[in-house]
Structure formats: C-alpha cells, structure tokens
Design goal:
The structure holds two protein chains of two kinds.
Chain A: E1 5-16, E2 19-30, E3 34-38, H1 45-51, E4 60-65, E5 68-69, H2 74-83, E6 84-87, H3 99-109, H4 115-128, H5 144-156, E7 162-166, H6 174-189, E8 193-197, H7 201-207, E9 210-215, E10 218-223, H8 225-230, H9 235-245
Parallel strand pairs in A: 3-8, 3-9, 6-7, 7-8
Antiparallel strand pairs in A: 1-2, 1-4, 4-5, 9-10
Chain B: H1 2-6, H2 8-40, H3 45-59, H4 63-76, H5 83-109, H6 112-120, H7 125-155, H8 170-176, H9 181-210
C-alpha cells in the first residue's frame, strides 16, 4: 500500500548466537505512515526496530532508508542515523547535561548549528512537548513521562525523516503513559513517519495506519488496525489478543 | 633534627627530583592511559587488541624489571636519553596501564543506552566518547586515579637505584656522612608524605567539585 517507501527491509535475517531472532523480514514503511509493531515478548520486535538504524547488525538481507542502502560503518552510518530519530524504553537522556543541553548537543555536534540557534530550536521543541519550564533541570529531576518527552524532543531536534520508538511507554507509571502517547499522536497527525514498538493497543488503534504483528521472529500479520483487532487471521494473533484484551 | 637542617639542600634536591618524576610520569600516564582506554572500548578490533596487549604487558611486569628493560634495553637500540627521562618513560608507561583500567571501569559505569542514544542521533564514536561517556566516567574515576598516582609517587623511589636524583636515594649520602639512619629515613618519609598528601588533597578537591552527586 505504501506509494512512497521511506523505510524498506528486504529478507532481513538476524541471529543472536543460535537464536534466529529475525526470520526473512520484509517490511515497507511509506512516508508519513505510522506503523505499530506488536507481539509477545521475545518475538523480535525491539530487535527489528533497532536494526533500522543499525544499533543491531543483521546477518543477511537489505535495509533501505529513503532509497539508500543502510551504510555499514563510519561517517555514512552516522549521517543516516541523524535522519532517523530513536526513542528508547529507558529514555537514555545524558545524565550530566541539562534538559536543554540534551536537546541541543547533537544539533551542535552533528548538524553544526550555532549554540544560540540550537538552543532556540531546543526551546521550541520543549515548548511543543510541554516542558519549556524544565529546560534548565537535569534529567534525574524529572518524572519518567517528562524524561521521555525530552527524549522525543531530542530526537526531533535533528529534523529526522522518521522516528523509531522502542517501547516508549513500557518503563512508565500508568498515569504518565498518556502524556507521552499524546505527544506521539500529535506527531502522527503532523505526518511524521513512525515505527512504534509498543504494548499500547489503544495507541495502535487510534494512531496507526498499519499494525504489524510479530511472533517468533516472523511478521505474522501486517494489516490495518481495524482489520487486525476485529478480525485477526492467524491463531497466534488471536491467542495474543485474547490474552491482552480480556482485562 | 640536625640531619634535616644540615643537609637541607640535599633533601631539597631529592624532594624536587621526586616531585619532577611524579609530575612528568603522571602526565604521561594520564595521557597514555586515556588513549589506551579509548582503544579498549573502540569499535575497531585492532585498536582493542593494542589496548589489551598494552595493559597485559605493562600491568603484569614488575616495575624494577621494566626499569632495567628501559634503561639497559633502549640504549642497545641506539636510543640514549638522560636517565631521568628513561625513568619517566618507565614509570609513565607502567602506570598508564593502571590508569587505563581505572578509566575503563569508569566508562563501564555509564549506561550503554546513553551511548546508543548518542549514536542514534548521528554522533560519531569519538563524539560520543568525548561528549557523553567520558565526562560521566571522569566523575567516577577520580578516587581510583588518585590512588594510582599516589602509588606512582612512591614507585618513583625505584628510579633512585638507577642513579636518578630522587628523595629515597639521598639516604646513601647521608649514611656515608654518618647521620643516624633512623632520622634520615624519618625525614625522607615526611618528604613522601608531603607529596602523597598533596595528591590526595588535590583529588579530594576534584571529587568535591566534580564527583558524582548521589
């Protein structure tokens, strides 16, 4: 269905030792599309997300970003990573830097922006995620939800073509999940290309264009959220949904 | 008391000799240790191998043996330098292995996720190391690096056996002049104390200033 593919994975295979964690993965994410990846733990969905900017290497297959093959190492890889933002489960903010400096750092070092220019952009983005007042605090002084929103602002500061979310709300207290999801929904509405690994079925239903269901290292279903949640085809997906949607 | 006042210039020279050895060898050890620690965590496997071999060889060689190797070995290859410089080389290289490991343990205290985050933003390995990992590693390695440099100050006494002017070596002259050996050594010990306490004071200060806030 994707007319203008931004992220393409072709026959991707990856092993952790003997464990075949990604098996012949084929996935295309179009520009402006929001793809939610769900599945039981250990199904390889986080690994899939991390291969897209080569935080995990792959054994075989091809990954293309915006038509270009993913470079193996060095400068080319760094440049590509700057175009693909990533948000992690554990936020991974730089603990020794203020919130503002966290968002500005890569703008200075990678994009070569001037300090006042970078800081202005950072404040804009912090405003956008609702954290303008926290700019001069350190990450440890913020709640988990706030830290994750800073992490999103930090990824956005590079003006990426796409954003990868690796279980962005899994480490959060329940009452903080929504503030992060709200920011993500807004990004989706603005047309950001997103790959989101999550357990938030509500988000998948409301914000995703497609739901990719993974199990045992394979993509089992790849459909619209409506279809997937109302009429899953595979037994594996039925089983998974019955377990999580009961309560 | 006489032994100090009568031979103040001799003590002074020895003291300065030890201070010089300590300062120069410390600088060399810190610089080399820094480079080797970067090698040991580098993504390039040949660099990692160099770092590993460096640490394995130098950390596991007795310092006296290393002095012999440098002072007697290097001239055979046509490299003739003042003995003090040889001593700085031996001490500096030896200590750099320990500094390297202290730094590496500090690097390991920084959560890997922060390195991944930096890389995912497009920062290179060296940018990640210098902007994210090392500033945080630095805070946690202040105490062990201080201990290592104190050990270096005391190890510099070995240089005296290779006719480099330093504090411990002064005892020979004093002994020949017939001074009480006990008092000679007491004042030598005081000299070392001044140096080592100065180092620990410096590192205490640094820890207060930059140490990890808990």
């Amino acid at each position: 269905m994707a007319v203008d593919p931004l992220i393409e994975l072709r026959d991707v295979n990856k092993y952790f030792g003997k464990l075949h964690v990604l098996q012949d993965i084929n996935l295309t994410v179009g520009r402006g599309e929001v793809v939610v990846v769900i599945g039981p733990s250990g199904s390889g969905k986080s690994t899939l997300c991390r291969t897209i900017n080569r935080l995990e290497t792959i054994e075989s297959g091809h990954i293309f970003i915006d038509g270009e093959p993913l470079p193996e190492e060095g400068k080319g890889l760094a440049q590509l990573r700057a175009e693909v933002g990533m948000v992690f489960q554990s936020f991974n903010l730089f603990a020794h830097k203020t919130v503002l400096a966290n968002v500005s750092l890569a703008q200075l070092k990678v994009r070569g922006r001037k300090k006042d220019q970078a800081d202005r952009r950072s404040r804009e983005l912090l405003e956008r995620v609702g954290l303008a007042e926290q700019a001069d605090k350190f990450p440890a002084q913020l709640s988990g939800g706030q830290q994750q929103r800073v992490a999103i602002a930090r990824a956005l500061a590079m003006d990426p073509k796409a954003l990868l979310f690796d279980e962005p709300t899994s480490a959060l207290d329940p009452e903080m999940i929504n503030e992060v999801l709200e920011v993500m929904r807004q990004l989706a509405r603005e047309g950001m290309t997103m790959v989101v690994v999550t357990h938030e079925m509500g988000f998948a239903r409301s914000a995703a264009n497609r739901v990719v269901f993974m199990a045992d290292g394979r993509i089992v279903e790849d459909r619209t959220p409506e279809d997937f949640f109302t009429a899953p085809e595979s037994d594996r997906a039925k089983d998974f949904l019955s377990k999580i949607l009961k309560h | 008391m006489d032994v100090l006042t009568d031979n103040f210039s001799l003590y002074g020279k020895g003291f300065l000799g030890t201070v010089e050895l300590t300062v120069y060898a410390s600088l060399l050890a810190l610089a080399l240790g820094f480079v080797m620690a970067s090698f040991r965590v580098a993504p390039v496997s040949s660099l990692r191998a160099i770092g590993t071999v460096w640490v394995a060889v130098l950390r596991n060689t007795p310092l006296t043996l290393l002095f012999f190797a440098v002072l007697l070995g290097l001239p055979r290859f046509g490299l003739v330098l003042p003995f003090q410089l040889f001593a700085v080389l031996a001490l500096g290289c030896y200590t750099s292995a320990f500094i390297c490991e202290a730094l590496r343990s500090g690097i390991n205290t920084v959560p890997t996720g922060q390195g991944e985050a930096a890389r995912s933003l497009g920062m290179s390995f060296s940018q990640t190391l210098s902007n994210v990992v090392l500033p945080q590693a630095f805070r946690s390695v202040i105490p062990p690096v201080g201990s290592t440099l104190i050990a270096l100050a005391k190890n510099s006494a070995i240089a005296g056996a290779f006719s480099v002017t330093e504090l411990l070596g002064t005892y020979k002259t004093l002994n020949e002049l017939g001074y009480s050996i006990i008092w000679s050594f007491v004042w030598i010990a005081v000299g070392y104390l001044i140096i080592t306490l100065a180092i620990s004071a410096l590192f205490n200060l640094m820890e207060k200033r930059w140490g990890v806030a808990r």
